[in-house]
Amino acid sequence: MSTLLYVDFPYPGPWGSEMSDAMQELAQSISLEPGLIWKIWTENKEQSKAGGVYLFKDKSSAQAYLDMHSKRLNSFGITGIDARFFDVNQPLTDINSGPLSAK
């Protein structure tokens, strides 16, 4: 069963196009993570938070990514990581045209 992983954390910036420019290499490396289907990058400048919504093929892939990503964020001094796992209800998501297909 596909697993959705939601992550956000305190982030001081950069934002918008500057964030896009600064995070190109990281985005490329994330696309190679085992079990990742897709990621949506999120940012909220007003609340100084960033993160993402990820779809993984299974919970074990999502958990392995979160473990690695949390260590990476902690190495940058980022704490207060909010992470949540959700099982995907495929039949209902199909009705609403949810983009669950693999790359």
What tags apply to this protein structure?
single chain, 103 residues, alpha+beta, Alpha-Beta Plaits, four-stranded antiparallel beta sheet, 4 helices, 36% helix, 30% strand, YdhR, Dimeric_a/b-barrel
Mean pLDDT across every amino acid position: 94
| Largest sheet properties | 4 strands, antiparallel
CATH class group: Alpha Beta
Number of strands: 4
Shape: globular
Task: Give the C-alpha Rg.
Answer: 14 Å
Given helix and strand content, the structural type is alpha+beta
Q: What is the level-2 CATH architecture name?
A: 2-Layer Sandwich
Q: Tell me the span between the first and last alpha carbons.
A: 16 Å
Strand residue content: 25-35%
CATH topology: Alpha-Beta Plaits
Pick out the low-confidence regions: none
Q: What sequence of helices (H) and strands (E) makes up the elements?
A: EHHEEHEH
